[in-house]
Amino acid sequence: MNNARPIHPDFQNFLKFKEPDLIELFTDLRSFILELHPDSNEMLYHTHALTSVFSISEKLGDAFCMIPIYTNHLNLGFNKGTLLDDPHQLLVGTGNLIRHIPIKEKSDYRNDKIKALIIAAISFAIKDMDKPTKSVGKTISKIK
């Protein structure tokens, strides 16, 4: 597991209050996403969930996936999940765009089906982007 990009201190301040199993899953899933697209910009939020959002630009509208961490679980969310081809019917949810995959263990995402879905989401986000990005590979904290 290559976790070359450290977790931002603003995020770490809230993450440390989560259960160790959730922290381990988050850290590994984050690494998995960054391995697939190292140039992702990571935007961090703390609202109803502690959330790490991965985008091909510095804009939330160009995000391809996210990891929201709740009290007792986390998900792998896809910002435009309803627009993705999901041949294995992995995505769940009822929103207009967002879909997610509940994550309970590493095997829930460290597999070829999820890897293909993330890569498809990245490709979709690149094609859907309005204009080229000004920044790549940055972590941007929106946590107050």
Description:
It is globular and about 35 Å long. The chain is 28% helix and 22% strand. The chain has a six-stranded mixed sheet with strand order 5-4-3-2-1-6. It contains three helices and six strands, in the order ααβββββαβ. The protein has one domain (9-129). The model has no long low-confidence stretch (mean pLDDT 94). It has helices spanning 9-15, 20-36, 112-128; strands at residues 41-46, 50-55, 63-69, 74-78, 99-103, 139-141. It has 144 residues and is α+β, with helices and mostly antiparallel strands. This is DUF1801 domain-containing protein. It comes from Pedobacter frigiditerrae. Pfam families: DUF1801.
Quickly describe the structure:
The chain has 144 residues and is α+β, with helices and mostly antiparallel strands. The chain starts with 8 loop residues before the first helix and ends with a strand.
Descriptive labels:
6-stranded mixed sheet, YdhG-like, alpha+beta, 144 residues, 3 helices, DUF1801 domain-containing protein
